Amino acid sequence: MSARMTRINPDELHETPGYHHITVVEAGRTAYLAGQCPLDRSGSLVGPGALDLQIDQVAANARVALTAVGAQPEHVVRSVIYVCSDDRGVLGAAWRRLTDSVIGLAFTTASTLVGVTQLGFAGQLVEVDLTVALPD
To answer: What highest taxon heads this organism's lineage (predicted)?
Structure first.
């Protein structure tokens, strides 16, 4: 049995590029994934200066973390995406790359995309924070 999840886009709110304004989870266990960074298993930054490569690594890392708790991208109930840029074109491209990634379904839920000035690791361009309703 999976947690019951309902995604809602009220008619009175603007259309979205794939996410939902509201995600309601009835009950169950929840996992909060730490911000997934573009680091390989040894802790080295992947793709210095290459946003697409970093997004691919973040997606791969998030997929591993989801699998570790018995979840899939469709179990994500909330995402926050941080991208080091103030350029809306770059932010939009990051969104599209993530929604086309191995965890793309994670971003059909309540999602927020934020442009920031810097992240925790030198050269880091992207980080993704996920909240998951764990299946029973």
So the answer is: Bacteria
